[in-house]
Amino acid sequence: MSFFDKPALRPPIELRMPVWSRGPEDMVPGVVPVALLVARTDTHAVLIDGLLVYPTGFDFDLAVRRHPRQPRHHRHHPHLWDDQLRLEVRFADGRTADNGPGRWPRPSGDHLPDPPLLYQSVSGPDGGHVWLWGLPPPGPLTFACQWPAEQIPPSQATLDAGLVLAAAARARTLWPDEASA
Amino acid sequence: MSFFVMPAWQPPTGYRIPAWLRPPETMVPGIVPVELLLARTDTHAVLATDLRAYPTGLEFALTARPHPDQLQQPRHDPDRPHRLMYRDLWLELRFADGQTVSTDPRRWPRTFETNQPDPPFLYYHGAGGSERGWRSPHWLWGLPPPGPLAFVCQWPAGQNPSSGVEIDASLVLEAADRAVPVWPTG
Q1: CATH code, domain carrying B143
Q2: Which DSSP category does A112 fall into?
Q3: CB pairs under 8 A between A and B
Q4: Residue B167 near chain A (CB below 8 Å)
Q5: The domain at A28-68+80-172 falls in which architecture?
Q6: Domain annotation covers residue B6
Q7: Is the reported ipTM for this assembly greater than 0.85?
Q8: What residue in A sits closest to B27 (Cα-Cα)?
Q9: B7 part of a folded domain
Q10: B13: in domain
Q11: In total, how many domains does chain B have?
Q12: Nearest CA in chain B to A41
């Protein structure tokens, strides 16, 4: 086949990401009406808010706030894991997930990894955006963080997982007629 | 001084975005317990999500999501292929006292970047997305008065002339009351 006979380029047949890698885009999530102050020092604070829940897991924002008197540093050295804000989510049954490197499995067909899995899709000095695959069991849901590079010691805040489960029950599909068809 | 001995460039320090253009950084917001479906067609849905209230205003995201069958379609205006499809998605907020605010920059005061406008003032700072959707952070400077609060969007390129939803502004006002300072003593 010559170059001129080549078939036209076609987009990939399946563009959808694995269901465990992000929230379903064809749903309106349920909102958890709570913002958590997870850590606070004289210079920094770490917030968890924007908890949006689906039947398969939940999204949230990990926000770093600086005290107004704290000058903003512009770092130019390489981005190292040791410099990063570390986050761990703990379920009441003892299972945990964190934003450490190398925790995200490779997609492999229809295999679903065991929840919980935590994926931080945005990461930077102001925090990031996080997806957690899997819903917590009833009981305390703990968010723990530490950031040695900014002198934030191990800190944590706890939420009643019932708020997350109730929000998951409020999530609804965007195109319900097709879902029921 | 020659070019080769010029001092290294230093990023600007001390500048802070004016309070009327962004949420306060030193407050824990009150979460407004709603997600709003503003419009839905066979191909797209438009939502207002992540509503966070502060004493000075309301932060939220205007979000557009394609129908799953549309994920492989280009996100460009078919009539003007050089323009992103979501470029013409505009939002208007309508308050119980008759005031309205809009993201149409033609309705913004000319000096809004340097001079504090009278609230309410609706500002958006950037937008981004992919074939999976689009998201734009919005900031309403000033809280709505009690009564109905309508979110109305217009999106000609998405075949959506005008649609929206109405909520009770007390949801926003009560959430604003729940906001607390991160550092209470300043």
Answers
A1: 2.60.40
A2: P
A3: 75
A4: no
A5: Sandwich (2.60)
A6: no
A7: no
A8: A65
A9: no
A10: no
A11: 1
A12: B183
Chain A interface includes B33 (CB < 8 A): yes
- Cβ–Cβ of A50/B33 closer than 8 Å? no
Q: Which residues on A lie below 8 Å from B52 (Cβ)?
A: 35, 49-50
Q: Is residue B11 part of a domain?
A: no
Indicate yes or no: CB of A67 within 8 angstroms of CB of B132.
no
Residue B141 CA, distance from chain mean position? 11
The angle subtended at Cα A96 by Cα A90 and Cα A101, nearest 5°, is 125
Q: Which of residues 98-117 of A touch B (CB under 8 A)?
A: none
Please tell me the distance from the alpha carbon of residue B154 to that of residue B89, in angstroms, as a whole number: 6
Q: How far is CA B55 from CA A142, B97, B122, B161, B174, in A?
A: 28, 19, 15, 33, 10
| pLDDT, mean of residues B8-35 | 81
Q: Which residues contact B120 (CB under 8 A, 6 or more apart)?
A: B93, B95, B99, B101, B140, B141, B142, B144
Structure confidence by residue, pLDDT tens digits, A40-93: 999 999 999 999 999 999 999 999 999 988 766 655 444 545 578 999 999 999
B184 reaches A (C-beta below 8 A): no
For the cut 80, the answer to whether the pLDDT of residue B77 exceeds it is no
Q: How many residues does chain A have?
A: 181
Per-residue confidence (pLDDT) for residue A78, from 0 to 100:
46
CB contact under 8 A, B35 and A34: no
